[in-house]
């Protein structure tokens, strides 16, 4: 097997099995606040997760069902919120293929942001250039 074939296999494994973990809720809340502000939804996010909603409140974000930006705590929520036309932020890279637009995860002890450009575009929400520059595009 040649170098290119091995590199493609390693890349495919890395993309399909990213060993990204979830961030603590207080860290997630801070990133959600930044991303919501970048999307023009400062101070409001759809969030059905009681624990995270409490952390969002601590950083000045109010759960609001009418917000264009949403946090999804499950793959089912990702799908339903995408169907409702929301920009869906989630905590697992795997959920981007289910309709998530942005995944906030922990890798190697550091927060990482993954962007699904097709789902971002489908939401109709425009993100700031700063977010687009720091996020890893899938």
A few lines on this structure:
The chain has helices at 3-16, 25-38, 50-58, 75-83, 117-123, 129-134; strands at 44-47, 62-63, 69-72, 87-90, 102-107, 110-115, 136-137.
The tally of strands reads 7
CATH superfamily, by name, is: Response regulator
Question: Which second-level CATH architecture applies?
Answer: 3-Layer(aba) Sandwich
Q: Going across the biggest sheet, name each strand in turn.
A: 2-1-3-4-5-6-7
What's the N-to-C terminus distance? 26 Å
CATH class: Alpha Beta
| Structural classification | alpha/beta
Helix content: 40-55%
Low-confidence stretches: 1-19
The average pLDDT score comes to 86
Taken from the alpha-carbon principal axes, the silhouette is globular
Element pattern in H and E: HHEHEEHEEEHHE
CATH topology: Rossmann fold
The total count of helices amounts to 6
> Strand portion, in percent?
15-25%
- How many individual domains? 1
Largest sheet: 7 strands, mixed
Tell me about this structure:
With 138 residues, this protein is an alpha/beta fold. It has one domain: Rossmann fold, CATH 3.40.50.2300. Helix content is 43%, strand content 20%. The protein has helices at 3-16, 25-38, 50-58, 75-83, 117-123, 129-134; strands spanning 44-47, 62-63, 69-72, 87-90, 102-107, 110-115, 136-137. Strands 2-1-3-4-5-6-7 form a 7-stranded mixed beta sheet, sandwiched between helices. Helix 2 crosses helix 3. The longest helix is centred in the first third of the chain and has 14 residues, at 3-16. The radius of gyration is 15 Å and the shape is globular. It starts with a helix and ends with a strand. The model is unreliable at 1-19 (pLDDT under 50).
């Amino acid at each position: 097997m040649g170098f290119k074939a091995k590199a493609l296999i390693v890349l495919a494994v890395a993309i399909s099995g990213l060993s990204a973990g979830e961030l603590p809720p207080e860290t997630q809340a801070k990133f959600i606040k930044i991303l919501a502000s970048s999307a023009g939804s400062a101070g409001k996010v759809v969030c059905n997760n009681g624990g995270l909603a409490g952390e969002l409140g601590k950083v000045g974000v109010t759960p609001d069902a009418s917000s264009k930006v949403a946090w999804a705590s499950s793959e089912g929520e990702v799908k339903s919120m995408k169907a409702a036309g929301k920009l869906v932020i989630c905590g697992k890279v795997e959920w981007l293929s289910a309709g998530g637009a942005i995944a906030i995860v922990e890798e190697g002890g550091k927060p990482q942001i993954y962007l699904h450009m097709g789902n971002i575009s489908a939401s109709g929400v425009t993100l700031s250039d700063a977010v687009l520059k720091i996020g890893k595009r899938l």
